[in-house]
Amino acid sequence: MTRLLEDIEDGLVDVVVVYKIDRLSRSLADFAKLVEVFDRNGVTFVSVTQSFNTTTSMGRLTLNILLSFAQFEREVTAERIRDKVAASRKKGMWMGGVPPFGYRVENRKLLVDEDNAAHVRWIFSRFIEIGSCTLLAREVGARGLGTPRGNRIDKKYLYRMLSNRAYLGEAVHKGESYPGEHDAIIYRETWDRVHMILQESPRKRAARTRADTPALLKGLLYGPDGAAFSPTHTCKGGRLYRYYVSQTVLKHGAGACPIGRVPAGEIEAAVIEQLRAVFRQPEIVAGTWKAARAQDGEITETDARAALQQLDPLWDELFPAEQARIVALLVERVDIGTDGLNVRLRVDGLGSLAREILAGGIEAAA
Residues 35, 5: contact at Cβ < 8 Å? Predict the structure, then answer.
């Protein structure tokens, strides 16, 4: 149709011929616009099976009547289709489209795909544990999961998944849900617990998530003037930025301390890197063995070395709360100055940690 109108405007068409008038348009308003284009460019309109003369008033009336019936037929057909879809959805039938993650379509019916259904159950249960789609999206990405079309699963996709009543075995139409023909993947109890969390303000959930994931150096970081640094954060452009701010600056304003604030990620990474280097030092291994032996005489120096070597590759797999607990156990104080930072360790903490590792008491995220 677009190419036809372009050719008409370019003067390449003399006559437009159709089988029936409703083959050109079934909308009275659209056809009126087409007739304007035809008249403006001197184009004649001919219907092979319908004889009328549009140059007369009776011919134009006949044309309008035919178009009115064509539009009426189109609208009635659309109503019938909508009614059929609604009736089918009320019966719980699958009416096409992209199946929800965790299902597959066979013979126009939704069937549970057990492999992906297990991932769906994990997503629902994990959301109940952490209450954050942002964190959940990262864990889903770490597992290598993707949408049925191969795209990355982001937090918007997770919100839609957590709100999809198809996982309860229901069919939804116009906001109303009906018992579906397909099997449920999620229990009602799990669904209700998820939606109790979703009803809470996203800001409150984000604040609680941050509280549940404590800052690694909270209560351990001190500035050049001896004042403690407190964790804080700010949001810009939808992103969260974490900092440690000097108490001196908070009390007396910017400029009161040569180091007012430091990015949390950078200072935490520097401390962790020093800890990892410490785990490999022979004198630290010997001190750890002596501290651990004071509590358990059966621990050998080889055991202490193996325990510290085991923690280094395991660190990235630990839960954030577990990382914070270990840092608090190992680090007595971190002093930051204009020329760098100094980490003071707890030798007795290293001994306690070695005993925990040997006993299998460290909790990993994977």
Answer: no
